[in-house]
# Entry
Amino acid sequence: MDAKQNHMEVLGYLVVGTFIMVILLLIFVPIPKASESVLFALLGALTVTFKDLYSYWFGSSKSSAEKTELLTKQAEAKEPAE
# Structure
């Protein structure tokens, strides 16, 4: 696994963990009225990011990136050594 892939997975786990933590916070902790709007804005931003992560990992973007990487490796293998 290369460094870029590792960073992407770590960021993905971080977003998912934060998303779950905020949902649990909303369920189990009473939120002061003054903080509700900030928390809901954070939840909205996390929801969009979570959706984007889900779309990438389980959608066509990941397979497209894998295909591009495979084609690049094949092209490099066919180049004559200098």
